[in-house]
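Exercise 7b. Backbone tokens:
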């Protein structure tokens, strides 16, 4: 592996970008109106009901169940909570170099749950295994801008394929550190980040260590990444990222999307995602040598979208990514579903998905989705990684398989006093035909969101 760091690559890239800035930059800081004149404040009210039923004798080890013998534990979890996400984005001061401030205020309120039903990460859990009645978090980041390059420091919600905030619970997670986004060159966006602590989706603590989604006990105090997205033309987009999770791994990501229009209402899109992960440094995550890719083909005809996805993991460790305390971040992978990511060691999986947009039938705002994903060939019996094998070891003499079915209905109000109010119903079922680390589950999520634009 190359010995040069992500930071060295970043310095070289942005020095090069700076040389091109004068002639190629489009209007950015030149259009600054002022900190208050171009500021925005919005509040997202999110009501979240979550029920998970563990089937075929499965039991929960969360909450007060963790203090009980196995035969007395509940086989389900249920939480209902109300969240508020306030986001303030300032403008920039005028001049060659503009400064500003971004801030977030988060509040979560328990509506219903209990020690025997908690464990779904909507609310934090106290030392006796009971969900807290409420929790909150405040965060902010200072920012500066030159031309079309913005640098920030503070609490942020990064969203790049190699490190992305989790948004699948009541409140989003966040990370503390530096980020830089540059769009000096036409059709090219470059991102650099260096983060040293995180806050989980069910926590008020901004100073937690970075974790991983899968590996139990793997922690570090820094992730650094560099990459970007280049839109070649209206049909082709390319992306490439590299990251260092300090003394754990170096991870690389590649993406390509190509669209082929067939007619006025028909098109085919091909999407490729690929990850390469290798341990380095002090190997705080033990030995890791992993390749993973996914390929999706979307066929769109009118209101209908049909998707065929294939995904494959090469290596005795699973595809893993940086987490935010109790939960991993979002991952850019075709078969990552509501419950399972289908990213176990050596796993291969197929997905069939169908989406329907009812605007073509006179009901704008109403959409439906159904998908079925099946994975097999999971095998980590040859892995020497103590963190991953601690979670589960597959029996290579068994035909290891599992499947997940997802159903979703969503509606966004198009007009009237509650315009933009959205309601989503999401159902998932997972079953394993033989041994797998995930339990058999049925789960239901009902998410109601209402965005308020204050100014």
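Sequence design result:
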């Amino acid at each position: 592996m190359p010995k040069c760091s992500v930071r060295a690559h970043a310095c070289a890239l942005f020095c090069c970008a700076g040389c091109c800035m004068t002639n190629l930059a489009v209007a950015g800081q030149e259009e600054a109106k002022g900190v208050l004149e171009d500021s925005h404040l919005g509040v997202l009210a999110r009501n979240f009901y979550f029920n998970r039923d563990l089937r075929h004798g499965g039991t929960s080890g969360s909450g007060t169940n963790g203090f009980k013998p196995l035969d007395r534990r509940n086989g389900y979890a249920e939480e209902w909570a109300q969240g508020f996400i306030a986001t303030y984005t300032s403008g920039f001061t005028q001049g060659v170099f503009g400064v500003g401030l971004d801030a977030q205020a988060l509040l979560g309120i328990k509506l219903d749950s209990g020690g025997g039903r908690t464990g779904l990460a909507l609310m934090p859990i106290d030392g006796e295994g009971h969900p807290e009645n409420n929790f909150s978090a405040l965060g902010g980041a200072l920012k500066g801008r030159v031309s079309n390059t913005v640098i920030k420091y503070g609490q942020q919600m990064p969203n790049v394929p190699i490190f992305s905030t989790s948004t699948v619970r009541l409140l989003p997670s966040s990370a503390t550190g530096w980020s830089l986004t540059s769009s000096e060159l036409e059709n090219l966006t470059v991102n650099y980040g260096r983060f040293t602590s995180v806050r989980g989706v069910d926590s008020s603590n901004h100073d937690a260590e970075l974790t991983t989604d899968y590996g139990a006990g793997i922690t570090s105090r820094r992730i650094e990444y560099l990459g970007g997205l280049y839109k070649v033309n209206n049909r082709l987009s390319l992306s490439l990222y590299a990251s260092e999770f300090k003394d754990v791994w170096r991870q690389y990501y590649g993406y390509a999307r190509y669209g082929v229009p067939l007619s006025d209402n028909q098109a085919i899109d091909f999407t490729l995602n690929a990850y390469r992960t290798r341990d380095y440094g002090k190997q705080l995550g033990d030995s890791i040598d992993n390749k993973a890719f996914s390929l999706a083909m979307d066929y769109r005809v009118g209101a209908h979208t049909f998707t065929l996805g294939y995904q494959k993991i090469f290596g005795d460790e699973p595809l893993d990514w940086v987490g935010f305390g109790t939960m991993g971040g979002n991952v850019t992978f075709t078969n990552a579903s509501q419950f399972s990511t289908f990213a176990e060691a050596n796993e291969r999986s197929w997905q069939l998905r169908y989406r329907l947009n009812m605007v073509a039938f006179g009901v704008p705002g109403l959409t439906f989705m159904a998908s079925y994903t099946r994975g097999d060939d999971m095998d980590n019996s040859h892995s020497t990684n103590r963190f991953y094998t601690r979670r589960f070891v597959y029996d290579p003499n068994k035909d290891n398989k599992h499947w997940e079915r997802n159903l979703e209905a969503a509606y966004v109000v198009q007009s009237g006093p509650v315009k933009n109010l959205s309601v989503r119903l999401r159902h998932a079922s997972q079953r394993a035909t033989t041994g797998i680390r995930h339990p058999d589950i049925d789960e239901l999520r009902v998410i109601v969101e209402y965005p308020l634009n204050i100014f």
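Instructor comment: The helical segments are 6-24, 386-391. The first helix runs from residue 6 to 24.
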